[in-house]
Amino acid sequence: MFGKNHPYEIHRYAPYWKKIVIIHVWVIFSVVLPGICFAMYRLCSQTTSDKVVSVYVINILISDLIRITANGIFTTVSDYITFSYMWYTYLFSVLVSIFFMVCIAAERYILIAHALWYRTFREIRTKVIVSVAVWILSAVIVILTSKHYDIFQDWLLFFAFLVPFVPELFFLVGTWRALSRSLVPHNDQRHIKAILGLVLFIYTIFALPAIVRIYYNSETGLEGYNNFFKSCDILFPLHPLLDLLLYVLMRPDFFSTFFCWFCKHRGNTVTINLTPSQV
């Protein structure tokens, strides 16, 4: 189904490397699954009539849950049909996660640079509409990819991974410049910058290697498999771990808790009064 350009055809790998990849994937699964379940429980339990948690973070965690499950199955099974469906499910979850990263960056940009618009943008109905649109768009891309087994598949995935980098960078720079002119408290500025920095970092270390890999496959096929590809096999399953870190970082009390812990272990007696961020 995938042809020689399929970038995740692990069944063509050397047997010893395939075993390493399988063990690595299932170790990540056993670590990430409890973390995702706990994070989703915490987010849902914090939802009240007057407090709306980040819908986009919940969607990212759902996509991570789908991803680690599909990744564990398609790296283990030998049945070709099951492998095919699980790989496309994995690809679908990756695209969903990338697009919601852009949504988080856009939300922070609108909050700082266009505060008047944020009242409308933060409504739960708007977020649900955006979320549904992201899931549909990702599904459409995957369906088009599954229907074309030639160079079109590679270039479609190439642009699907590359295009979000432009708005991601725009929102980061725009938010950074808006913060320098705003009256937002310093602690909140640091919180927002850390979130956007982590979002861009996650995209850079996972999406850009995938872009390079897809382009390389479109030109040479799997005959050019090398150490860079092996590094990607180890790197890509780590994505959900950083998504959990993003969930922790987006908690309003993250910096106050972190600095209290830091000062306690340093033996400082300085009292730190930090107001939890509301963004």
Automatic annotation (TrEMBL):
Keywords, comma-separated and alphabetical: G-protein coupled receptor, Glycoprotein, Membrane, Receptor, Transducer, Transmembrane, Transmembrane helix
SUPFAM superfamilies from the UniProt entry: Family A G protein-coupled receptor-like (SSF81321)
Single GO MF annotation: G protein-coupled receptor activity
Pfam families to which the protein is assigned, alphabetical: 7tm_1 (PF00001)
Major place of residence: membrane
Stored InterPro entries: GPCR_Rhodpsn, GPCR_Rhodpsn_7TM
Bilayer disposition of the protein: Multi-pass membrane protein
Keyword Membrane: yes
GO cellular component labels: membrane
Domain G-protein coupled receptors family 1 profile per the UniProt entry, residue ranges: 35-247
UniProt family annotation: Belongs to the G-protein coupled receptor 1 family.
Protein name listed in UniProt: G-protein coupled receptors family 1 profile domain-containing protein
Organism from which the protein derives: Coilia grayii
